[in-house]
Write a structure and sequence with these properties.
Among the domains are: 99 residues, Immunoglobulin-like, CATH 2.60.40; 118 residues, Immunoglobulin-like (Sandwich). The protein is α+β, with helices and mostly antiparallel strands and 519 residues long. Helix 2 packs parallel to helix 3. A six-stranded mixed β-sheet has the order 13-14-17-18-20-19, with helices on one face. Strands 4-1-9-6-7 form a five-stranded mixed β-sheet, with no helix packed on it. 17% of the residues lie in helices and 32% in strands. The chain is elongated, with a radius of gyration of 25 Å.
């Protein structure tokens, strides 16, 4: 009950401050005009022979307008507005030296207030024309994108871990873009400057969204200022873009509250933007909603579900939990669509906050608390369909599970011995089976929610070493992707291969083996 009263009080303070900001915006309302144009020579300056582009949406973070046949637009703004283009299919926005898309203009004439970590510099008077260059960029129906959860670096050496553990293997990827799902840094946003060139080495457009650890908590008590360091580095904290046939929407759902806390919700302007954006796209287009905190933990999730229910093709994803999880949102959860909505809780690139014993390269193994390795997701989009594949850091593509069983089993007790399998990207729709040898019967395994035994043993072993061989691992959590089955009865003495195969909801099949001896 105390928690409910606390949340209600925080929401009241937040809504009062938002209402005050809205009244102030009305008093200072002005208009931005400009042109979205074909930047033929890609120099970022509109030349006389570069035509405007019609029907491109431009937003002020609340609503949007379409450019006219000459590429012109007009938008109402205040002195605290980021104007941005919603990138259309087959066009690309300018990229900076770190491959961050620059599709926006920040209008803050006086800049940010003085903050411990720098915000936005004063932008001065509004230009007579705020123009946005685009250039043609062919985008197929089928393409890949990489999604990274929680790099969460808090010191320079962790940028090195990220470089060697994740980024180097992504260099030269055939993905069309990558997107980081928040907590780019761990409170120290001065690390954006050395981190961004590292992320840019992947070599594809690098999008970002804001996590709770990307928040300027010293900007209290005004919610409006807590995002301004993020905005200086990346632009708007929520936005949308199209790639191929897919519409992507990024949201900023950690909302500031007093005492360095946050509530998972959207502010009124952001909710208005989401409503306007969804109303502006074809109903059957695949909509991918991206945020930091899982949608299932948002206080206003029902309103978002209601906005999404008229779109039959949707996917949402988040990070934040430092675990890997698939959540199916149904009518029992308030979902009103014709089929359950899939929400992917993306595994963390930093795993368990860059903790655990150091390996031969001096990088912590940083296994996640649910027993999955740190890593990222690769999603292949094809029209309104998609396939998700988990990739463990520096692991082979087919490394998708761990099998846990005793090395030696007493033949008299074999039928009581359980085999456990952690299928890292498994879900309630996965089929998992095992058999002994190549000719035994396949045995269906049962999904169970327990702590991963390998993780528990690893943590215990590392905690008992003096000195500890690396930063301390966090406590285990119950994993959502472990399966179990008992060994068949009546097996003879001998050395066996335990074979496990799993097929996920995307019809991807993976196999693994473990050797066991029966005495």
């Amino acid at each position: 009950m105390k928690r409910l009263f606390a949340i209600a009080a925080i929401c009241f303070v937040y809504l009062v401050s938002t209402a005050s900001a809205t009244e102030q915006n009305k008093a200072t309302q002005q208009y931005a005009v400009g042109v979205v144009y074909n930047d033929i020579n890609k120099n970022g300056i509109r030349d006389s022979d570069e035509p405007g582009i019609k029907s491109v949406r431009v937003s002020n973070g609340v609503g949007s307008v379409k450019t006219d046949r000459d590429g012109k637009y007009k938008l109402s703004i205040s002195d605290d507005t980021i104007i941005f283009v919603i990138k259309p299919r087959n066009w690309m926005t300018r990229l900076d030296e770190n491959n961050v898309p620059r599709y926006y203009y920040i209008h803050k004439p006086k800049g940010s207030p003085q903050l411990l970590i720098k915000g936005v510099d004063p932008t001065g008077p509004l230009p007579a024309s705020v123009d946005f260059p685009l250039y043609p960029h062919k985008e197929p129906n089928k393409f890949k994108a990489v999604f990274l959860g929680d790099p969460q670096v808090q010191k320079p050496e962790e940028i090195a871990y990220l470089s060697h553990d994740i980024i180097e293997e992504l260099v030269g990827t055939d993905a069309s873009f990558c997107l980081t799902l928040g907590d780019v840094a761990f409170n120290d946003m001065t690390l954006y400057e050395p981190l961004l060139p590292v992320m840019g080495k992947i070599g594809v457009p690098a999008y970002y969204l804001k996590g709770n650890h990307d928040t300027n908590y010293d900007a209290a008590p005004m919610q409006k200022y807590v995002d301004e360091t993020f905005e200086r580095a990346f632009g708007p904290s929520y936005y949308a873009f199209n790639y191929g046939p897919v519409h992507f929407i990024t949201l900023n759902n950690p909302n500031f509250s007093r005492g360095n806390g946050y509530i998972a919700m959207l502010d009124p302007d952001q909710m208005a933007f989401l409503r306007d954006d969804l109303a502006s796209i074809p109903r059957r287009q695949l909509v991918v909603l991206m945020m930091h905190i899982p949608i299932t933990e948002m206080t206003d999730r029902k309103e978002i579900y209601d906005l999404l229910k008229s779109h039959p093709n949707t996917l949402s994803m988040s990070a934040h939990t430092h675990t890997q999880d698939y959540r199916f949102i149904t009518k029992a959860d308030g979902w009103g669509g014709s089929k359950p909505h899939l929400h992917l809780v993306n595994g963390a690139t930093c795993g368990s906050w860059w903790s655990g014993a150091f390996d031969e390269l001096g990088i912590p193994h940083t296994t996640m608390r649910d027993g999955a390795p740190n890593g990222y997701s690769i999603i292949t989009f094809n029209g309104s369909d998609y396939t998700i594949r988990f990739k463990g850091a520096r692991k082979p593509d087919n490394y998708q599970m761990n099998i846990y069983a005793p090395d030696i089993v007493d033949v008299a007790k074999a039928g009581d011995v359980a085999v456990l399998v952690n299928v890292f990207a498994g879900s309630e729709r996965s089929k998992v089976e095992m058999r002994l040898g190549d000719k035994g019967e396949w045995i269906s395994m049962e999904r169970t929610r327990i702590e991963d035994p390998v993780y528990v043993l690893t943590k215990t072993r590392e905690d008992n070493l003096k000195p500890r061989p690396g930063p301390k691992l966090p406590d285990a959590v119950k994993s959502t992707h472990i399966w179990k089955a008992k060994l068949p009865t009546g097996i003879a003495k001998g050395t066996y291969l335990i074979n496990v195969r799993t097929t996920d909801m995307f019809r991807q099949t993976y196999t693994a083996t473990r050797i066991m001896r029966v005495n």
